[in-house]
Amino acid sequence: GNAPPGVDPEAFSWFQAVDADRSGYISVKELKQALVNSNWSTFNDETCLLMINMFDKTRSGRIDVYGFSALLRFIQQWKNLFQQYDRDQSGSISFSELQQGGRGAETPTWPSPSCPATAVWLCWVFVSSPGCIQLDRFIQICMQLQSTTDAFREKDTGLVGNVRLSYEDFLTMVVTRMM
């Protein structure tokens, strides 16, 4: 059939191919089978779950064709940013590429990687293989940073760049954003 109104025909075609059980929805398992990194590894479970949850308007653990179409646009945006950091076009971001920063890349969701603490933390916590970050982990990092940044901004009502929190408030803020 034809793509529904507001859904890119290519996204609709891919949705039909990914919807293996023909339920009209994409599950985490189906999404994981459809997405691959440049080294042909499938996206990790956590990234797929985060993305499904982001576009699941019914909280059913799956997305319809509209959610899938929006998800593909979302992935493409992050892939474009990923490619800016991947200076050698290897399909992964090395520690040195992360430190150098993306070519013209500066987004509110991605702190400046020239900050050594940020670069070290990102590399050590989210490496998918020694010394590099694949696209799925990059998306996961960006989503978690965005969520944490949003939580911080809710507390930083004066937009001054710092807040005063109790440890319990901090944990509550972080944990509720990661689920």
**What is the rounded distance between the termini?**
37 Å
CATH architecture: Orthogonal Bundle
With helices defined by DSSP (H or I, 4 residues minimum), what is the helix count?
8
CATH superfamily label: EF-hand
| Shape descriptor | globular
Number-wise, the strands total 4
Task: Output mean pLDDT.
Answer: 82
Integer count of domains: 1
Low-confidence stretches: none
Secondary structure category = mainly alpha
Stated plainly, the CATH topology is called Recoverin, domain 1
Question: Mind sketching the topology for me?
Answer:
Blueprint: H1 9-18, E1 26-27, H2 28-34, H3 45-55, E2 62-63, H4 65-85, E3 93-94, H5 95-100, H6 116-126, E4 132-133, H7 135-155, H8 167-178
Antiparallel strand pairs: 1-2, 3-4
Helix pairs in contact: 2-3, 3-7, 4-7, 7-8
Write up this protein.
This protein has a two-stranded antiparallel ribbon. It has a two-stranded antiparallel ribbon with strand order 3-4. The chain has 179 residues and is mostly helical. It contains 8 helices and 4 strands; from the N terminus they run H-E-H-H-E-H-E-H-H-E-H-H. Helix 3 (45-55) crosses helix 7 and helix 7 (135-155) packs across helix 8. The protein is globular, with a radius of gyration of 18 Å. The mean pLDDT is 82. It has helices at residues 9-18, 28-34, 45-55, 65-85, 95-100, 116-126, 135-155, 167-178; strands at 26-27, 62-63, 93-94, 132-133.
Features:
single chain; 179 residues; mainly alpha; Recoverin, domain 1; two-stranded antiparallel ribbon; cytoplasmic vesicle; EF_Hand_1_Ca_BS; Peflin/Sorcin_CaBP
